[in-house]
Structure formats: structure tokens, C-alpha cells
Specification:
The protein is mostly beta strands and 117 residues long. The protein has two helices and eight strands; from the N terminus they run E-E-E-H-E-E-E-E-H-E. It has an eight-stranded mixed β-sheet with strand order 2-6-3-5-4-7-1-8.
Length: 117
Amino acid sequence: MNIEVVKSKIHKVTITEANLQYVGSITIDENLMEAANIIENEKVQIVNINNGERLETYVIKGERGKGEICLNGPAARKAAVGDVVIIIAYACIDFEEAKQFKPSLVFPDTATNTLVK
């Protein structure tokens, strides 16, 4: 039996841009993606701490080190610049494997969206 578990989580980053005219997705700083073990085009859930909105979309790689977190297309209506969100990716894995699985959890600086050293 397979179950769905949290694979990766970027906990509390700040939306830096909302681009309604883009096709759709979320752009994430490449440093954050690597730290959280998230890849481009991966499906993620976005949870907005400010307004409770939840949505699913896919990831676009942002410029490394810029702290960019941009909701694109219709997702841009779900958050405002300055809102704090949690980004979560899930994986389906074997039930027994899931008991030992450890997700990649990242807790960036919410003021800069950069990794805390």
C-alpha cells in the first residue's frame, strides 16, 4: 500500500510578487528549491498564513539568491505581496518506507526569503 506524505516544506516565506498576467505557477528562488529538495515543474501546495487560502500549482525556478517568491497567473489572486506562505510538496511512497522517511524541511528568514545559516 502507498500513502501520501510530506516530501518537502518551505516554512514561512514572503510573497515578493504576484503576476496575474503569467500563464500560472509559483516562482521560487533556486536556493530555496535546492534546500527543500523541490524541482522545477513539481506540484506543490501553497498555504497562505495571512488569509487561509490554499492552492496547488507547479514550480518555476527563480533566480538564485534573490529571495523571489512569485505567484503567477490565477494563483496571484490568492495572495498579496507581503503575505507569508508555506510551500509543501508531497510524495506517494510505500507505507513501510513512510515510517522511516524524513522530509526536507526549510525554515528561511521571512524578511529576506534566504536560508538562515
